[in-house]
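Tokens as discussed.
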């Protein structure tokens, strides 16, 4: 008994054959249409192209989009490569920028050290800061100039703008600078424009306080603070900083020197100041000159005065207390005539 074929494949095969046959006939007709060389067929072909080809834009759209995506992908690839190259160049430029900033800062400090206006009588020696104390209880730095450069204890040191401290310890090739912020630092200052005298005392902070101000009512934040020159420790009129009001309501000084970037320091030669040989010479006042003690009130030195030993005060002053002039002695008991 024969088996009935009713599956979908049995119906699809004839349909595909018919469609393939029609497609072959259509392509053969189009080929023949384009191969016939006739004026009428040429006009027919032109009209057919004008009618059919513009309506095929929808069919060409996927191809156009695919081509645009390929171009965009290639463009994005080039942009990514350029971006990576720019990143590498940016990293190199950052390193060069940091080096340039450091050189610019050093150059600015050296220019400040060379161009700052000081008293013409002062000469200076510029030194490089080798190291700092690294201790919260001592504020000092080490310079690469010492006895070979003629440095002496007590000389003032400045950066390009303001006072930094004083020399406190000199070696053959190095010297140590006690900063104004050190707790052992005490310098007399003048507050301008009021002219009030005060004492700048270091307390290991960036804003040292002002002590012993004559009249605080005449001092305002922002006033200029300079050295007074009292005591002969520092030259006068060296810039220290500006008055500022601290968080504890005390008058403090905002130092003009940049203590965060001390690289070069200028040591001022103070030839007119006596060199400091001990710490007592800094604090103790100078002793008054010796004054001879005057003689007791009495007759003039030329008038002889009797002494118990029979001599005169003239003989005593001249260093002969034991010898006397017999002619200058008045005999006792012979006072009557």
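Sequence:
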């Amino acid at each position: 008994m024969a088996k009935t074929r009713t599956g979908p494949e049995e119906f699809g095969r004839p349909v595909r054959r018919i469609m393939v046959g029609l497609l072959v006939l259509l392509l053969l007709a189009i080929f023949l249409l384009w191969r016939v060389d006739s004026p009428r067929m040429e006009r027919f072909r032109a009209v057919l192209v004008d009618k059919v080809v513009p309506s095929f834009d929808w069919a060409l759209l996927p191809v156009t989009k695919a081509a645009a995506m390929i171009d965009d992908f290639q463009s994005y690839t080039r942009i990514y490569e350029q971006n990576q190259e720019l990143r590498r160049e940016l990293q190199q430029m950052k390193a060069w920028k940091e080096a340039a900033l450091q050189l610019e800062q050093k150059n600015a400090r050296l220019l400040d050290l060379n161009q700052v206006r000081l008293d013409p009588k002062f000469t200076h020696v510029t030194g490089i800061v080798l190291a700092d104390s690294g201790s919260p209880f001592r504020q000092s730095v080490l310079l690469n100039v010492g006895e070979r450069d003629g440095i002496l204890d007590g000389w003032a040191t400045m950066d390009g703008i303001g006072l930094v401290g004083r020399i406190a310890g000199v070696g053959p090739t190095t010297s140590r600078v006690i900063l104004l912020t050190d707790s052992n630092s005490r310098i007399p200052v003048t507050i301008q424009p009021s002219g009030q005298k005060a004492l700048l005392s270091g307390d290991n902070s960036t804003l040292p306080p002002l002590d012993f101000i004559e009249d605080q009512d005449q001092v305002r934040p922002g006033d200029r603070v300079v050295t007074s020159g009292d005591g002969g420790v520092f030259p006068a009129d060296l810039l220290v900083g500006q008055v500022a009001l601290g968080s504890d309501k005390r008058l403090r000084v905002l130092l003009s020197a940049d203590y965060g970037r001390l690289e070069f320091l200028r040591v001022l030669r103070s030839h007119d100041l006596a060199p400091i040989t001990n710490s007592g010479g800094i604090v103790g006042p100078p002793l008054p000159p010796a004054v001879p003690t005057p003689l007791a009130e009495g007759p003039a030195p030329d008038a002889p005065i009797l002494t118990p030993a029979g001599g005169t005060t003239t003989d005593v002053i001249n260093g002969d207390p034991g010898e006397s002039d017999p002619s200058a002695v008045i005999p006792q008991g012979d006072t009557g005539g």
